[in-house]
């Protein structure tokens, strides 16, 4: 995977006790506001902290990751800590929390949890729910996916799908999560999956705000490579609450699914 050697979402600063401290770069910036971070960089950084726990390096692997956004994540220094909430030899729950600096001090702005499961040999029973994504004609990017901030850190490829089908896009992140530190397949996936909410949108962003409060992904096969496809669709209820669901693919095929709760408001 080729990365911009100077491009990253966060730069590591001196630790504060058990807390890892990072400077947030402009590549984390969201399209919803000039001083807000996109949801994917915090998810990737928290997942990195979880993967660095000794328990996540042994015989357990990630099966599900859930990000809860506890408040606006500003483009300010952040600090992160991770711990094992529920230890176990076959099943463990890991948690990571991000605090951001605001006037008056640090406050919690995001939390991720990951179920770590023991692996075993089930290759003879392996199966995918969906076939690989078909080849669709290319389509231009919609507004909001080609510009500054986070949008500069990911290559988006859009496709023209038949009427009535969910929108499809492929994404390739091309910057590091922290400085030039190695990026794992899980971190690469986490650095793009929050975008499913925009890919599956059914609302005009010039007329509506549709911000997700969480991102949950279940993955039955370890992500491969540096390109990920999503087939996403948003459903909007009559009272301003929506849900975006997506199927996730790498170039080998289907690897899992994601879901996001969405706050919908008219501008």
UniProtKB/TrEMBL annotation:
It comes from the Bacteria. InterPro entries: ACOT8-like_C, Acyl-CoA_hotdog, HotDog_dom_sf, TesB_ACOT8-like_N. Residues 136-264 form the Acyl-CoA thioesterase-like C-terminal domain. It holds the Pfam family 4HBT_3C. The lineage of its organism: Bacteria, Bacillati, Actinomycetota, Actinomycetes, Mycobacteriales. It comes from Mycobacteroides franklinii. This is Thioesterase family protein. Signal peptide: none annotated. Residues 29-116 form the Acyl-CoA thioesterase-like N-terminal HotDog domain. Gene3D superfamilies: Acyl-CoA thioesterase, double hotdog domain (2.40.160.210).
